Request: fold
Amino acid sequence: MQVSVYRYDPDKDAAPYMQDFDIELPAGKDLMVLDLLALLKERDETVSYRRSCREGVCGSDGVSMNGKNGLACITPVSEVAKGGKLTIKPLPGLPVIRDLVVDMEQFYAQYRKIEPYLINNEVPPTRERLQSPAEREKLDGLYECILCACCSTACPSFWWNPDKFIGPAGLLQAYRFLADSRDTATEERLANLDDPFSVFRCRGIMNCVNVCPKGLNPTRAIGHIRNMLLKRAV
Amino acid sequence: MGELPTLEFDAIIIGGGGAGMRAALQLAESGRKTAVISKVFPTRSHTVSAQGGITCAIASDDPNDDWRWHMYDTIKGSDYIGDQDAIQYMCSVGPQAVYELDHMGLPFSRNDNGRIYQRPFGGQSKNFGKGGQAARTCAAADRTGHALLHALYQGNTKAGSVFLSEWFAVDLVKNAHGAVVGVIAMCMETGEVNYIKAQATVLATGGAGRIYQSTTNALMCTGDGAAMALRADLALQDMEMWQFHPTGIAGAGTLVTEGCRGEGGYLINKDGERFMERYAPTAKDLAGRDVVARSMILEILAGRGGGEDGDHVFLKLDHLGEEILHSRLPGIVELAKTFAHVDPVKEPIPVVPTCHYMMGGIPTNIHGQAITRNAKGEDEIVNGLYSVGEAACVSVHGANRLGGNSLLDLVVFGRSAGLHITDALNQGMDSGVASSSDIEAATQRLSRWNESTTGESVAGLKRELQSCMQLNFGVFRTEANMQAGMKTLSELRERINQAVLTDKSQAFNTARLEALELDNLLEVAEATAISAEARKESRGAHARDDFQVRDDENWLCHSLYDPVTKTLGKRDVNRAPGLLQTDKDLPEGVFEPKERVY
Amino acid sequence: MVTQVTSFSRNGLSDFIVQRATAYILAAYTVFLVGYLLIQGEMVYADWQMLFSHTWMQIFTMLALVSTCAHAWIGMWTIGTDYIREHYFGQSANGYRLIYQVICILTLASYLFWGVKILWGN
Reply:
């Protein structure tokens, strides 16, 4: 199998380049792309990538595989390789630190911008704040985000304005707190999202939905935010 | 290495998982200058993989639930070498710590009355073991760890905590007076090495499951903190106690939560027999994890395992119905499809006991202060050093941890360490200063790798180490195997000391990281091996063929591994919690060692 | 990075509402004209003049014209802030975007004045 990997070491390389490896896949086993990367690293220990949980919950190993973003650890090689070929590149749209490792600060900054924490200035009860199962159900499909950045880095609007458009991941979390019955800062949160860029740069391209490794739907969440902004205005 | 750049903080926390971030949150609120050093972005820490829940007597499922019942279960689960003062503290403070998580935004699943949903887990009982199965594990579907870790990160973001993300701690800096005064750490992005100076250093580095070949642990769980303590000549406690989780997916090693059995799933052998009925007639599949794991291995050894090689059993869930599986265990359905290629709605999941949790670690008191032995053999606080979470051994888990108790351990003791450090700093804590040779000493192994020119590769040595541990220090242990394993490890030590790092680049050099992690794996593996060989009895997770029964006369104690002499000592278990003096309603002798049956 | 926003409204929601509302007007106008053409069949100059002599048609057309301008401005402004950035144009991106926007405004203003002149001139 031919694997082509994006290589760049800032100390050594003037420009990034693609390096091809021929890899013999062990028979009878469908490897994940992460296993493949580990094989490459055994052959050439300078190949750099992030990884940790290897089960799709830590969100470290988002990469672009044959042009589609996903988590290397839960993507079977057989699913993405085409004609015995696989091209692995870093997530698009973020600065590359080295090889498959991107600088995620811009992504995290957008996440921090939406005040990603519960705000409730009332004195908390001595026990938990009550929440009905129906209220809690509204958080399903939102809180499961693992901040892998597959969605935001697949979004053209985020590529164009990564400093102003919050991006699908951040907006999914913005709605996670707007939808939480325990949060009381709805007005403040909406006011912060009202500008022409933060939310409204979403053009409904839906790349985010297409690539989310957890099967979440940021576009729908963005629609909910827009409706809340509309309701607030009328 | 020349003069290193220095960063200075009042307190630093090494590790951005549940325990580290809970401590950080407490410290952020103190207004002291603190930072979290984490080798990954904090939400990537291994706490994220915890599934089933956080066990705590919040009396939601049963309004009469009592934290003392939880305490009883935990002591029994620990096979009586859990420290009872620490267990009392954890179980009694637990509810407050869990409510704080709710206030922080953790999206717990809910009951119809709006309270936090609790599910049954193994080893849980009501009324000191006499009232049947309890449901005490607070859950956010089967993603509790993820929900908890993100809530804590969010809380820290709100509190303005400082994170040094993707910084790797190399070694503790210890001064001539034996105090820990910070750490040598490397920024992954630039490769720059810094001395990070602090009055208080907290090791919250998690476990080391990667010493085994097959583990539920993340690839980065390499025991960095435990190994740093060992290299600082500090003793580790109960290192022979490794939990093998009954249900790791066969082949892949990924975790399938005990919550599956809590929700009504059960284990079957290749004949479809629910075999746990034979091994634990009362609790069945919800017996202690050590008991279930051993039963599974015995089934497999008796030829009743499934698959081509007969090397696993099955977890049956289909009878729970699609709706329950999708609402209560959605993550498991996903994982089973990805890693076992089965849909649990229709077929059972192939599972096998898999290394999961390090019960041992850095001995501490309930404030997280690290403890060592002085020359007279008495306990002594290590100035400047704290430890919390899986890296620490406070010890609430003793010889076997109950499911759901690790998340509680993280938040309760992360919180208590944070409180204690705040107090200590306010009272003018001064751990002293480091000389340049103290700092130099802590950079030695980094220099060793950087200067290496020829030798074996890291990846191959790591594989050998893991296979040695898997083969010789697994669920069942024999003297001959352990001896052989110890010999292999000491040879591996020689070879690792001669191994080579070929990639000497600066920017995000993960090869260097893996080399440094290999050193850590070796330290922890050796401590495990020597401790396991020396504890001549079977207790909790430590099961020996040659000493099959528990020996309370000689071994109702912690083991204490001394890295200087490489020998095993003993340390008393606290069996006199404050509760015994003050609580007159407590049944007579309730926490005394008894035969452990489920 | 877009450092000069130069939106008229500085409010994403009002842009969003204006763009949707004007879209409805433009859609209605298009449907009406197409429908009218289909019903009437071939039309000569006199028929056209006849149609546009009605005050309601003049107002309807005026509305469509203003909608075109508002709709196009928001759209063109968005395109400008998406593509005319330092990433492609370096430090002078803000200058280029300003020129682009001025061209857009002049074009749209010409449409508007010309349209008014056609509708109500003489």
